[in-house]
Amino acid sequence: xxxxxxxxxxxxxxxxxxxxxxxxxxxxxxxxxxxxxxxxxxxxxxxxxxxxxxxxxxxxxxxxxxxxxxxxxxxxxxxxxxxxxxxxxxxxxxxxxxxxxxxxxxxxxxxxxxxxxxxxxxxxxxxxxxxxxxxxxxxxxxxxxxxxxxxxxxxxxxxxxxxxxxxxxxxxxxxxxxxxxxxxxxxxxxxxxxxxxxxxxxxxxxxxxxxxxxxxxxxxxxxxxxxxxxxxxxxxxxxxxxxxxxxxxxxxxxxxxxxxxxxxxxxxxxxxxxxxxxxxxxxxxxxxxxxxxxxxxxxxxxxxxxxxxxxxxxxxxxxxxxxxxxxxxxxxxxxxxxxxxxxxxxxxxxxxxxxxxxxxxxxxxxxxxxxxxx
Length: 374
Ligand code: SAH
What we know:
Blueprint lengths: L3 E2 L5 H10 L7 H14 L13 H10 E2 L4 E7 L5 E8 L2 E10 L2 E5 L3 E2 L17 E2 L2 H14 L14 E4 L9 H11 L12 E5 L6 H8 L2 E5 L5 H7 L8 H9 L10 E7 L7 H10 L5 E7 L13 H13 L31 H13 L4
Parallel strand pairs: 1-2, 6-9, 9-10, 10-11, 11-12, 12-13
Antiparallel strand pairs: 3-4, 4-5, 5-6, 7-8
Helix pairs in contact: 1-2, 4-5, 9-10
The structure holds S-adenosyl-L-homocysteine (SAH).
The site of S-adenosyl-L-homocysteine has 18 residues, from strand 10 and strand 12.
């Protein structure tokens, strides 16, 4: 008999699972609270450790359910402390998670899909053939694995090592809306993993019609992979721009709920030599986002084997940053982390078997888009 996985279930789903397994309906809400606490506050790996549950209840649960995480295929630790895990949940279903420690925070970069359908020209993930949406168990599982490996339980402790989650791993989170929403609901649930919504950032290449829904239903911080200030350039490097051009994207940002100076939108801008890094473009960038409470994150391009671009020269990045800074935007240049283990931004690409066809990509995209409000 296969055991049902509990990680990734919402409280309501968990309750239904317990009742189906024979837990009396009256006792179910209390059992949900107890289990939720064991699973997401203490990171329990098995039911035997759940000492406030009667032995027969533990036995019942152990017979029907599992708290298994995704399988860790490899764990790599960079000389700067960055860690990368390759995880697997089935044949060819492999995805990566990266932990980036900084003095004031620890950020987990989480994947939303195996591969990606967007084909941004500078991104390594876009060259991967297999594409599949990750389910809530696989998305939440990435945080569970990181906390396990970092001995970062209980999740309510003072000095947590994972303090922030960014949906900036493999995949486009807004093309996997329902699963990402469910997973982030669990990640931000106050009695469990308890990361505040401010510390969770969803990054999108610009699936414009889903942005209002992300604001209303997920409510996390928002990051936009802008990368160019003109449609003709963005059409090439972030091809989804042909569907949703810059103006529409920025309009969606202007009306993103909850945006204020205390809650800014992050604009990511990858520095590609001779492509998008001229100083007039820096000036155009600050003009474009005028009126939007924003941070600008300049990302030195991280090369990968066969990449069609080079990173801008360092002094060009500095001059570009200076213009942005002078316009009043904090614009930290994101230092590449974990380069030695290919964990830097946009280098994530699992070695999954190449199953995907163009049709499969189209299917995923249209499924995501069908759920959009009209
Ligand atoms: N699909 C989402 C999230 C994944 S990518 C999005 O596009 O926002 C996370 C960030 O890394 C994006 O800003 C992406 O454009 C950037 N990125 C991708 N490849 C990169 C590379 N080789 N060097 C630097 N940044 C890269």
